[in-house]
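_Backbone structure tokens_
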Amino acid sequence: MFGIHDLALFIASSLLLNLMPGPDSLLVMLRTAGQGWRAGVAATWGIGSGIMVHVLCAALGLSALLAASAQLFALVKLAGALYLVYLGLTLLRRHAAVRDSAPLPAMPLWAIYRQGMLTNVLNPKVALFFLAFMPQFIDPAGQQQGLAFILLGGIFNLGGMIWCHLLVLITATARHRLHLPARVKRALERLIGALFLAFGIRLAIG
């Protein structure tokens, strides 16, 4: 269908790739631990939306343009790196004006959704991943390659969404049972902020 082959292998590979730890999993777990399952779901849907932006760009050939232009790739990569650094510094700075024993102010769900989306949209390596990975399962002589990209991207994204929702469930259950004090939650958020900062620096120099 649509020139797609080895679909079972694609699904298995996608699930394994989605299980790999990265900024998406960290963001989902952080927001769930800090504000509950609704915040985790908001982050998950933001991540899924960002992935679909890359899928549609790949289907339309925009990702190929990004890969072919070194200047454009460098510009998008810099923007993504700066956003991750900004996100990390924001998490670290949220503690400056609040005492360690006080709870952190809640973020609006829309802002959490936007964070999840931007961490993906501004990462050009996600676009290059789709260009390198999905064509292996599409017949180069096929007449509907764009639809094949969208279908495979949707399958990949569905697996990622299922995994992120599972992370929300696990983290929300742990949060409910452990009743972590505000000081511990703040320490975890500092750690996640430092990791986002490291991800941003790695993206900038990688």
Observations:
- The chain has a mean pLDDT of 80.
- Residues 7 and 154 are 13 Å apart (CA to CA).
- Residues 145-178 form the longest helix (34 residues).
